[in-house]
Write a structure and sequence with these properties.
three-stranded antiparallel beta sheet, 3 domains, alpha+beta, 12 strands, 17 helices
């Protein structure tokens, strides 16, 4: 397939016109032309250097990207996620959105009430923590999906340990004849660098069955022939995979960052070349405008005599002007490119650029937008399904991965919501305290309720203990004329309301 960046071409012309207008006469200075054309060329070259390699990849079949294409894209994506500012920031934001509130593994318990020692040993094993169960492992695995689109872990039934299988080490995939979306085997090729027997690196090839295929086919063959070559089946290993962003019958997942890659590359080049242009402008103090070549040569000679700062004498055919310094190059003209990166990654442009923009609307970007929420929830569901496979593969299907609720409002608004729920009798004081401690990240005893003090002046904290709970109507939380929406009466003798009532008696 062949995608052309028509939008980019249109935007290039817009940028060219804007920069030409802001430069004014300085645009015609020959020394600036190279830097100017370089900056604009960064966007023009996106069509050839960004879109073509990524979206114009050859396809060996009609099932989406081939394995070779995925390897090429993933190598480029891995490099960009480390070196490109927007790509790295986008990845960190996505990780924070998905895992920022934390998660737990609900492990099944034996009749004794304890987690089976065999399962506890698997989860707590340092190697398995590094691959699957630690927060660091979670973010690394999400990084794999970001750059590759396919996450594969291997379970060694003999050693009881997990390991990752990268797509770069895969040479083939065997699917069901009647269902290309279902995998039977992954073919792995790796090199043993420390072969002490020969002293030379040794390449090993093997077939690894998918866990579900191995579970339903107990008698796996010892080897499988491919291209006239007999390759052994590793019966100690099973594979558990997660493929994202793929359509029906596609063999491989698609990286999260794929649509963002060309735009992130273009934005980075645009800023670099824009900086070059600004530097070039700063290096030129004056420009000579002449009607004739003779007049230009004469004025140039006067400029080169070292007396420019003292006096300059021009003729009727020449003028000498300073190069404008302010508002010459507006790099915000490239912000729509950054916005395309943000859109492709389901994050806000303010968050990914850490730039409030000319409107200064950072305050409105402190919470997750609806697209960000849905993207994070979707990825959480991906991992929940993936770990369901993991636990089934190791014989503990009751174990479940749970994520804590996403934080979609600022903390003060969540505290207000808790207070409202408590006031309306929707939650108990202990539930309120537990939620508040977690929200405010305070280490405290949930069952130990705070004592009344002079600061709060509170004596009664629950509706059940309030003798006037049935008769009062002044606890309406809805703000309107005559009602500020306050919590209302809590048998508080220090409140202004009660003081006013006592004074009127």
């Amino acid at each position: 397939m062949n995608y052309r960046a028509d939008y980019v071409k249109r935007h290039v012309e817009s940028v060219r016109m804007q920069i030409t207008d802001t430069l004014g006469d300085a645009h015609d200075v020959p020394q600036l032309r190279e830097a100017f054309d370089s900056m604009v060329g960064a966007l023009i070259s996106l069509d050839d250097q960004g879109w073509e390699p990524l979206f114009g990849l050859s396809h060996s079949n009609d099932r989406g990207f081939s394995l070779d294409n995925i390897k090429k894209v993933s190598r480029f994506a891995e490099e960009q996620s480390k070196s490109n500012t927007l790509m790295g920031r986008g990845l960190r934001l996505r990780n924070n959105h998905v895992f920022g509130r934390g998660y737990t593994f609900d492990l099944p318990t034996a009749p004794s009430g304890k987690v089976p020692p065999s399962l506890r040993k698997i989860v707590d094993d340092p190697d398995n923590q590094e691959v699957l169960f630690s927060p660091t492992a979670m973010k690394k695995n999400n990084r794999v999906l970001f750059n590759t689109g396919t996450l594969i872990v291997l379970w060694n039934k003999r050693t009881r340990k997990f390991s990752r299988l990268g797509v770069q080490d895969i040479f083939q995939r065997i699917a069901f004849d009647d269902d290309a979306d279902r995998t039977k085997y992954y073919g792995r090729s790796y090199t043993i660098q420390n072969d002490l027997t020969s002293g030379e690196p040794k390449t090993v090839e093997e077939w690894i069955p998918l866990w579900s295929y191995a579970d339903s086919n107990k008698a796996l063959p010892a080897s499988i022939v491919m291209g006239g070559k007999r390759i052994p089946v590793n019966r100690d290993l099973i594979a558990i995979d997660l493929r994202v962003n793929s359509d029906i019958d596609e063999a491989w997942g698609v990286p999260d960052c794929l649509a963002a890659l060309p735009w992130a590359w273009a934005y980075n080049e645009y800023l670099k070349d824009g900086s070059k242009l600004l530097k070039a402008i700063a290096a030129i103090a004056l420009q000579v405008k002449a009607k004739t070549a003779k007049a230009a040569a004469a004025a140039g000679a006067k400029l080169s005599n070292g007396r420019v700062a003292q006096q300059v004498i021009t003729g009727p055919d020449t003028t000498i002007e300073s190069i404008p310094r302010t508002n010459v190059v507006d790099l915000y003209t490239g912000r729509p490119i950054a916005a395309n990166v943000a859109a492709a990654l389901d994050v806000s442009v303010t968050a990914i650029t850490t730039d409030t923009g000319k409107g200064g609307a950072y305050g409105s970007e402190q919470t997750l937008t609806l697209p960000e929420q849905l993207s994070a929830l979707g990825r959480q569901e991906d991992f929940i399904g993936f770990f369901s496979q993991v636990f089934r593969a190791i014989g503990h299907p009751e174990a479940v991965l749970n994520f804590k609720r996403l934080s979609v409002d600022p903390i003060h608004r969540q505290v207000q919501s808790l207070g409202l729920a408590f006031t309306l009798g929707g939650i108990s004081q202990k539930e309120l305290r537990a939620a508040a401690l977690e929200l405010l990240d305070i280490q405290g005893d949930i069952d130990t309720l705070p004592e009344p003090n002079a600061f709060t002046g509170a004596k009664t904290f629950s509706l059940e203990d309030d003798p006037d709970a049935d008769n009062r109507n002044d606890s309406d939380p809805n703000a309107r004329q005559g009602n500020s929406g306050a919590v209302g009466k809590m048998n508080d003798s220090n409140s202004t309301r009660d003081d006013d009532a006592a004074a009127s008696e």
